[in-house]
Queue: 2 jobs
Job 1
Amino acid sequence: PEVLADFHGEMGSCDSCHVSDKGGVTNDNLTHENAQCVSCHGDLKELAAAAPKDKVSPHKSHLIGEIACTSCHKGHEKSVTYCDACHSFGFDMPYGGKWERKFVPVDADKAAQDKAIAAGAKETTDVVIIGSGGAGLAAAVSARDAGAKVILLEKEPIPGGNTKLAAGGMNAAETKPQAKLGIADKKQIMIDDTMKGGRNINDPELVKTLANNSSDSIDWLTSMGADMTDVGRMGGASVNRSHRPTGGAGVGAHVAQVLWDNAVKRGTDIRLNSRVVRILEDASGKITGVLVKGEYTGYYVVKADAVVIAAGGFAKNNDRVAKYDPKLKGFKATNHPGATGDGLDVALQAGAATRDLEFIQAHPTYSPAGGVMITEAVRGNGAIVVNREGNRFMNEITTRDKASAAILQQKGESAYLVFDDSIRKSLKAIEGYVHLNIVKEGKTIEDLAKQLDIPAAELAKTVKAYNGFVKSGKDAQFERPDLPRELVVAPFYALEIAPAVHHTMGGVVIDTKAEVKSEKTGKPIDGLYAAGEVTGGVHGANRLGGNAISDIVTYGRIAGASAAKYAKDK
Ligand code: FAD
Ligand code: MEZ
């Protein structure tokens, strides 16, 4: 047999997977088909528990939601390991093929799309949300709380977008966790840091709304079951304000899971494998719904009073990235495979104005060996960065644009992140990198240098000088403003890092109510809202670490509430 369906076909008829013996699926989530897999093979938890402990298990992952078996195990085509979108584990997958994803423009197949539109709406709702990342899920929760009927459409088989990958934290000022830790912060300082980091081209009103609502957003998440009690420092922040779960665990998977659970609990109709390819309007320009391409059910129209675009950015689409910033051509990306810019395309078709698309951020510490971004929190908690000569060359917690540029100037266009066991113990996220086998370990600094094949005496000198700066409270070399700890607790660790495309700052123009502005009139398009990485203006020319999760939670909530109100008042 070539594919899984051949094998199952030999065992019985189509109804071993499908509802009828003639095949055909019930919905794009493949609810029945996935339940059939589980009924014979067990669920993810059971499969993960049975896997050898010393190996990365394909069934144990950091992804969120209920991961459907068919996300990887395909019936009628070669199976693919979704993990390979970022990593390269080389799992021996039955009936497996190579991970490949070609970008298909949203307007491909126009004749079939026009035919589906002409056939009219298949169903009706109050609010449609495009995207199941943090912005979309936050919008779903707040729209449901405001009484709207919501359909949330996600093109990927796995929910959570980039949000589920977020690691370092969520920025917020004047919060309860900060107060508990004795951290004095002000919303105005968050505004000033964000404007400065964004080179002052941010929309000041959007920034004010971000900072002024950030503490409420922490309370909102906490009230739904989130743990945001650990607070650390991110690049460009003058105060510790990046919130994450206890012990420094990754923030994104946690926040996305809490929002997912709450959206599900509130009865949101969530459809995976469902790509929105067009936003529909009437002759007066009012939004009337969306055209969806169901991976298995084909094109159909959902009529809706309001649409929220929460479709994320486009950092994983290198052709598009390079179009706006040719310097980034061929760069790897930290993003999930769905970050291709579809949201922007459907928004443009609907007449939305855009801004700042040329501003694209590279994250300075991506591990090429692991296919994974190494969180800024490692530096925030005290790690240093050295080059192949064993020397520091920058303030490690400067903004990302500056850090990435400095790394690219070093020999080999990469560098090493160096930390000690006390930093490892301060941040649970590091265990994930150790698990991926990408972290070198040395009993002493000299031993570590040998493993990295860099001059041992030079690295020892660098660490000694740095420890002296920590003791004196002043980095005489690069003016690093925050010096949390000396690097003295063995064992010592290092991993190679290089910049990778991380965040697209530009996008759809919105106002503080998350209304999308029209390119033609400059006024809001009736019924169209947007939130999160698909928008521009909040982060200006350069986003500060920790500000995106803050953005998506705050503007996701606002967009959901605004869309529900519009639908109700209509
Ligand atoms: P996403 O979470 O990307 O969700 C958008 C969803 O829309 C996706 O699931 C996508 O598949 C779907 N979609 C797109 N087009 C369509 C369509 N046409 N139809 C249906 N669905 C569609 N920020 C921080 O503040 N702190 C951090 O610690 C942090 N760490 C990060 C670590 C990594 C590795 C990455 C990649 C990013 C990190 N960020 C962090 C940035 C932050 O995670 C993102 O900017 C943010 O989560 C984006 O949220 P979103 O909801 O706007 O988009
Ligand atoms: O905001 C981010 O992108 C972030 C904090 C990433 C990280 O390094 O953890």
Job 2
Amino acid sequence: MTAPTLEVHLSDEDLTTALRADARRGLTADPKWLPPKWFYDARGSELFERITELPEYYPTRTERALLERVVGDIARIAQAEVLVELGAGSAHKTRLLLSALTAEGPLKTYVPQDVSSAALRAAAEQVAAEFPALGVHGVVSDFTDTLRNLPRGGRRMIAFLGGTIGNLVPGERAEFLAGIREVLEPGEQLLLGAGLVIDPDVLVPAYDDAAGVTAEFNRNVLHVLNHRLRADFDPDKFAHVALWDAEREWIEMRLAATEDMTVTVADLDLTVHFARGEQLRTEISAKFRVDGLDAELTAAGFRTERVWTDDDDRFALVLAAR
Ligand code: AVJ
């Protein structure tokens, strides 16, 4: 086995700079908001892992079962030599893909990308041990940098799984997909996992579970601001809100102030007032229709090759080629 390499394009300092800018922009906006990527410090990543095991949170297990069913087809069609996985995180689904892509095709290299170097290092080492014939090159960066620094040579497939595409608003999605399309060579592919529009009676509890894990995950962004920017949020004074926006077809998570309060963010020299009941938007999680996914991919210059959905039409995997 060759030891995995790890390329770091994102330092702790870069992360803090980005968080400062996002926090200042979002907390001074009306309505207030924060980007969802700041949920994921060590505690947030752990809470998300717990979410994936909740009875109400169907996306992870649905995508996994679907991937298990169709991964052979994906591997046969893709014939990838390099698998780039965006937001690889703990790399649970990765094993399925790697096994199939090595059994059914010419895979030689795995390039996991994540913003968290700790999670990535662990994942890269595990994969390297399990697939000794594979070259493993981890990249710590944000998506845009990853795309700019993508290894060349060898037919590549970029996987973006888990439904995280739904964290982007339509304009950001268009830009993101076009950015991927731009770095691909003709014939190379994108494998996209996306949650589908389903009955809100199933959807909403997935983001508002009975055990309160998602509520804790939501409030974790306030802990992150407290730790990284020396803010003094009292997370217990914020209530978890999850609602389905039927028009825009996305879940919105918010934190509602349970009383009037003033919060200071010492590292930003910022004082923020919350009125009782005021809501801070912390995440959108858009759900899709197969036609809409195809249209967005086509608009970004992709050709949709295959779409697979689970039997309940809750989740889709799309293989699209440049
Ligand atoms: C990791 C972005 C796919 O949107 O379903 C889980 C994050 N938020 N519960 C999602 C999340 C609330 C998750 N993604």
